Amino acid sequence: MSENELQRMLASGPRRTGMPAVTRRDMLRRMGIAAGGMSMAAWLAACGVSGENGNGGGGNGEEEKDSLTTTEATGQLNFANWPLYIDRAGKRRPTITDFEKASGATVNYQEVIQDNQSFFGQIREPLSQGQAIEWDLIVVTDWMIAKMIRLGYLETLDHSKLPNFEANAAGIYKDPSYDPGNQHSVPWQSGITGIGYNPELTGREITSFNDLFDPEFEGKVGMFTEMYDTMNLTLLGLGVTPQDATNEDAEAARDKLIEQRDAGIVRKYYGNEYADALVREDIALTMAWSGDIFQLQFDKPELQFVVPDEGGILWVDNLAIPQNAPNPIDAMQFMDFVYDPEIAAQITGWVNYICPVPAAKDLLLTQGEDDPYYKQVAESPLVFPTPEMEARLHHYKTLSEEDEAVWNDLFGEVVQG
Q1: CA within 20 to 30 Å of 281's CA: 3, 45, 185, 274, which one?
Q2: What is the spatial distance between Cα 367 and Cα 5, in angstroms, rounded to a whole number?
Q3: Is the CB of residue 141 less than 8 Å from the CB of residue 47?
Q4: Cα end-to-end span (Å), the chain
Q5: Which residues does residue 80 pair with via DSSP β-bridges, in sequence order?
Q6: In the chain, where are the structural domains located?
Q7: Integer CA distances (angstroms), 380 to 115, 175, 192, 361, in order
Q8: Is it true that 3-191+315-382 and 192-313+396-415 share their CATH fold?
Q9: Using CA atoms, how far apart are residues 188 and 191, in angstroms rounded to an integer?
Q10: Interatomic CA distance for residues 304 and 195, integer angstroms
Q11: How far is Cα 295 from Cα 190, in angstroms, rounded to an integer?
């Protein structure tokens, strides 16, 4: 098969007649991770792990390698992802199977990423020595993408091999601040950091970040232990666009958070367990991740998620190719494959996080004619945000190594004080 024939086949994608019968929610239930059990974010914590201090190793973002390890597809792909972050049908992963059929490649797919920091700790040493790691394709969160770009640990993408991305990716995912021009990454799935609440407990609609600081809710507010989420959302509450924030702005955010803490408004700084506290009604409102609230709404439909008037954070988990990967062309073919709208719909119908391909919505609506579950997925603004929601979303502040250490110290004063 010629490269052009393969590109056409990959760009068109397989035509499926239906979605997998077992949803991600079904599997979460079987594993005891639905509402009242372990938080979904325990399995998909990509959305907010606090940054890492320390030196970055041998590379830096200014260095350029001569070329990829190969300019031809090899028929092999080693793909590292998070648990429960791709569609399943029994023991099969249909998207992986479809790609293998379309490309002729063999995919070694492993769910080995539990959080950004620990995974980076596993791959950092060989990457700092200019060595290849065992993975051709990885999924890490936007702030980690920025760090790896800064250290020179990611390959540059050839966008001539990504026609589906160019044609079908939502505009909000193109040219992001953490990776200008998508030179090193394309989005896999994403979500929003905003506010989740129970209107039966708040007694009113929640619309503003400042509602988290209202003495009316003393002892009933949840905040996050994750520095990136909490500091960036607080900056928005102060009227500061995260990407424009200075260390002085970060100090102001710290001061506001300390005032909230000392006033007894915060019940607890939560990690993944915040969702359980919301379900148990320990808290009335909390910082929240959109994907968690969407899942919880199946069992507790009164729960609401809102992007504050001041803005919310769009976090993005991205596909990227580590430096010196042995199979970079196969990796780029897979990147483009998942931007076929039917493949994107297939993944989103199971994963339920924000889909980077808007055209997938209509395909899910069509599927919803036979199964109302897919209609609920397609119509949820937590999976396909409205333009009004998107207009109020921001990326995390892209921090230098030095500024990351400063912000970690400032936030440490809040949660450890």
Answers
A1: 45
A2: 29
A3: yes
A4: 63
A5: 110, 138
A6: 3-191+315-382, 192-313+396-415
A7: 27, 26, 13, 10
A8: yes
A9: 11
A10: 8
A11: 15
Residue range 77-136, pLDDT digits in tens? 999 999 999 999 988 999 999 999 999 999 999 999 998 989 999 999 999 999 999 999
Secondary structure string (H, E, C) spanning the chain: CCHHHHHHHHHHCCCCCCCCCCCHHHHHHHCCCCCCCCCHHHCCHHHCCCCCCCCCCCCCCCCCCCCCCCCCCCCEEEEEECCCCCCCECCECHHHHHHHHHHCCEEEEEECCCCHHHHHHHHHHHHHCCCCCCCCEEEEEHHHHHHHHHHCCECCCCHHHCHHHHHHCCHHHCCCCCCHHHCCEEEEEEEEEEEEECHHHHCCCCCCHHHHHCHHHCCCEEEECCHHHHHHHHHHHCCCCHHHCCHHHHHHHHHHHHHHHHCCCEEEEECCCHHHHHHCCCCCEEEEEHHHHHHHHCCCCCCEEECCCCCEEEEEEEEECECCCCCHHHHHHHHHHCCCHHHHHHHHHHHCCECCCCCHHHHHHHHHCCCHHHHHHHHCCCCCCCHHHHCCEECCCCCCHHHHHHHHHHHHHHHCC
The β-bridge relationship of strands 185-197 and 304-306 is antiparallel
* Per-residue pLDDT tens over the stretch 218-256: 999 999 999 999 999 999 999 999 999 999 999 999 999
88 and 96 Cβ atoms separated by less than 8 Å: no
Domain 3-191+315-382 has CATH 1.10.760.10: no
Q: Are 319 and 62 in contact (CB under 8 A)?
A: no
pLDDT above 90 as % of the chain: 80
**What is the C-alpha separation between 266 and 278, in angstroms, rounded?**
13
Tokens 């039917």 belong to 342
The model's pLDDT over 132-173, given as tens digits with 9 standing for 90+, comes to 999 999 999 999 999 999 999 999 999 999 999 999 999 999
Distance CA 177, CA 243 (A): 8
* Backbone conformation region of residue 215, classed left if phi is above 0, alpha if psi is from -120 to 50, else beta: alpha
User: 163: which 2 tokens?
Assistant: 């026609």
